[in-house]
Amino acid sequence: MDQLPQIDAVTSAIGKLAERLHSVGAESCSTEQAYGRVLSEPLLADRDSPAIDVSAMDGYAIRLSDLKGEALPVAAIAAAGSAPKSLPHGAAIQIFTGAAVPPEADCVIRREDTIELPGQVKIEILIESLYSGLNIRRRGENSKAGDLVLPQGTILNAPSMGAVATFGRAKVMVQRRVRVVVLNTGDELANIGEEVKPWQIRDSNGPLLETWLRQMPWIDFVCRKHVGDTLELVESAIETHLANADAILLTGGVSMGDTDFVPEAIARLGGQVAFHRLPIRPGRPVLGASLHGKLLLGLPGNPVSVAVTSRVIGLPLLRKLAGITPIEEPLKRCLLSEADDKALSLVWFRLVKIDHSSNVKLIGSQGSGDLVSLSLSDGFVEVPAGEGGNGPWPVRWWS
Ligand code: AMP
Ligand code: MG
Fold it and tell me: What is the b/e burial string over 357-381, where b = at least 16 CB atoms within 10 angstroms of the residue's CB?
């Protein structure tokens, strides 16, 4: 791994663990409930789209060969939702957007290019500018019956829900939701509302991860629990919760301290560690393991580390469990409007904020425990090892 450029080392560590994870099974889902779920079958067109030639404009359907410069009698009106009208020789049919084009017509003249007379229409546009097919959406021009519309592994967003509806799917096959449990380790943790001594801290990682996980409709957030810092407690919490989960995200207890029991607990349960420590900042101690095809991800305890590593490392692994393809979220790059030339020999995730003029700026941070800077940020950029400056760098926004 050391020979690989740092970012490739991270990607290959994720890929190695992803290979060992078993994607969850499929289930039938009514379309009303399918938003945000993952297609477990390809969506095919049930019929041609459009299913018949339709008008793209409000206007008049005609035969080009009937245009001799004189007004044409209007034989009928074709509105959307009616079977196609037939076009007599030497006549026009008034037609509205989305209505079936008469089979005999070869062109639709826009209403604004005509003069409407009682029972007649005069075409007021150069005949040479007209051509067969003008303003007609041809049957099957979007897709033919049986064509692939959306591949298996697609997350059903709003536009794809439109496609599911247009191709008549009252039910779709989707992946079962990925059941995720969050375990927050640490004897120093107190819950919101509890009395907190100066040497204690309130658990912020739990709410942060729960909120993030609940935003994804393909995840079934099972629960989150606080676990004390003993080997027995950590081991039994993992064992108990893994029975009802596909993934456990742990926070804290994954580094070199004497109270860091996550690696040993995972080893005792027979977990196969794919990586422990990656060349990244923040989040270096991160540990990824699998057990019976399920995911055990040990995130370092610091809040910025949790926010960043859950996104960079946790998300692709959860997407693998969910059957989403590709497992990596699509990344955009952004140019920083102000930058320094600082560089690290690790991949550096730096918090950024976007202003009203779309300028993306680095946020000064006191380090991976600085929840205040984290909460003010809009996302973070990924700066490769040894590099600095404005980028453009891959960016991940929090939402
Ligand atoms: P650890 O990885 O357990 O050594 O924790 C690293 C740092 O993160 C310590 O300063 C912890 O107090 C802090 N930390 C651990 N868990 C949490 C949590 N759930 N919420 C906020 N901070 C935490
Ligand atoms: Mg700890």
Answer: eeebebbebeebbbbebbeebbbbb
d(CA 328, CA 107): 46
Q: Would you say the pTM of this structure is higher than 0.85?
A: yes
Residue 25 pLDDT > 60: yes
H or E element at residue 309 = helix 303-309
Q: What percent of the chain has pLDDT over 70?
A: 99
SS3 216: coil
The structure tokens 């059957």 sit at 323
Question: How high is the pLDDT of residue 3?
Answer: 62
Choosing from 205, 208, 230, 286 the residue with most ligand 1 atoms within 8 A of its CB, the one to mutate for a pocket test is: 205
Q: Which residues line ligand 1 (CB under 6 A)?
A: 184, 186, 188-189, 201, 203-206, 251-255, 257, 300-303, 369
CA 87 distance to own-chain centroid? 47
Question: pLDDT (tens digit, 9 = 90+) per residue, 52-105?
Answer: 999 999 999 999 999 998 999 999 999 999 999 999 999 999 999 999 999 999
